[in-house]
Design a protein that fits this description.
By secondary structure, the protein is α+β, with helices and mostly antiparallel strands. The protein has two domains: about 250 residues, no CATH class; about 80 residues, Pdz3 Domain, CATH 2.30.42.10. The chain contains ten helices and eleven strands. The protein has a four-stranded antiparallel β-sheet. Helix 1 packs across helix 7 and helix 2 packs antiparallel against helix 9. The chain is elongated and about 80 Å long.
Length: about 375
């Protein structure tokens, strides 16, 4: 039942973020004189449709994987009144990048709200204004449970929050480590919170740490939250900019590892080829496709509280913005890039040429999605 709830909630988050992205395109198109023919939630086949008073066909479709907007004369070479192609260069730029802007603003808005109630601190240098910031430390949380460990035998799970250990409070993760060492070999009571409900477990601690998994056999951590008042909007916007920079830097590292790995693969030296394999493995481990993303969203949606779920939504929205602005054909940034190149070269971007470029880009993109999906399946099987 919980898994089904996580799947439904995860899909709703994805659909919402893609729909607001497409809504950005639609609003920008109408404001710049381009006719919006259809706005759809989900992808065909069509389940239901209605012509709105403004002339837009609103449709709900069977495949709940996002949404789309269909504009009149979407080719750059279209020249009739109301066509996308008939709009000026700057009007097209606004239309193409409106979806990116909406996703970025959604992320900034969510992070601003979280800055008021408690924004998760995940960057060492995460922005805050000292005079208007309170750092809230969450209870110590179990992040890992070793197989056949005392913790596993006692029923402790990842995500449990340790409230008291052997009758003593647990203010920090280091405290828990010290407490387990001090009580090694003993049978003690652990009071923990799971989904807001306190529970008790009796744990027989190991007498030694020869396997280096600890006397309790858990990994633990402590989340911190940034809470602000008047500076919350500033914190929200600047933090979104910080996460944007981190995401772009991560994509840059992936690209460097990919190029380095492919280049070194052709070397006759066995050690060099092994190093190339390590670079490509780094890329494989760092990239997630649809299955990997859904595999992250669904459990998170199932287990997370409101703050974590809102934070996850903001990060996904920001990721959609960053990915869509990349100069890859078939994506918003790619379409803008191709349009700009042809404008600078003062060459006409014909319908046939644009279709070839976008089709080629789409095929390459789909090939990458397939390869990453295969890698995702491999990770899940492991």
């Amino acid at each position: 039942m919980e898994l089904a709830f996580g799947i439904i909630l995860g899909l709703l988050i994805l659909v919402f973020l893609v729909v607001v992205h497409e809504l950005g395109h639609a609003i920008a198109a109408r404001r710049n004189g381009v006719v919006v023919e259809e706005f759809g939630i989900g992808f065909p086949p069509k389940a239901w449709a209605k012509k709105l008073k403004n002339g837009i066909l609103f449709s709900i479709n069977w495949l709940p994987l996002g949404g789309f907007v269909r504009l009149k004369g979407e080719h750059d070479a279209a020249d009739k009144k109301g066509d996308y192609g008939a709009a000026s260069y700057w009007q097209k730029t606004r239309i193409l990048l409106a979806g990116v802007a909406i996703n970025w603003l959604v992320a900034a808005g969510i992070l601003t709200i979280l800055a008021w109630v408690g924004l998760p601190k995940i960057l060492p240098n995460q922005f805050s204004i000292a005079g208007d910031t309170t750092i809230i430390k969450q209870p110590v949380e179990i992040t890992y449970v070793a197989k056949d460990s005392p913790a596993e035998k006692a029923g402790l799970k990842v995500g449990d929050r340790v409230v008291r250990f052997a009758g003593e409070p647990v203010p920090t993760a280091k405290t828990l480590s010290d407490q387990t060492k001090a009580k090694k070999g003993q049978q003690i009571e652990v009071i923990y919170s799971r989904k807001g409900v306190e529970n008790s477990a009796t744990v027989a601690l190991r007498g030694n740490n020869q396997n280096e998994q600890g006397y309790l056999g858990v990994g633990s951590g402590q989340r911190e939250q940034i809470q602000a008042s008047w500076s919350a909007p500033i914190v929200g916007v600047v933090t979104t900019a910080q996460f944007t920079g981190v995401t772009l830097a991560g994509l840059g590292d992936l690209l460097v590892n990919l190029v380095k790995g492919v280049a070194l693969q052709i070397s006759p030296d066995q050690a060099v080829r092994q190093h190339a394999g390590e670079s490509l493995q780094t890329v494989s481990n760092s990239v997630a496709g649809p299955i990997g993303i859904l595999g992250t969203i669904f459990p998170a949606a199932e287990q997370a509280g409101p703050v974590q779920l809102a934070f996850l939504t903001a990060i996904i929205s920001l990721t959609l913005a960053v990915m869509n602005i990349l100069p890859i054909p078939a994506l918003d940034g790619g379409r803008w890039f191709i349009m700009t190149i042809f404008k600078l070269l003062r060459k006409p971007l014909t319908k046939e040429r644009e279709e070839r470029i976008q089709a080629t880009g789409f095929m390459v993109l789909m090939m990458l999605v397939v390869l990453v999906t295969i890698a995702d399946v491999g990770k899940l099987l492991k």
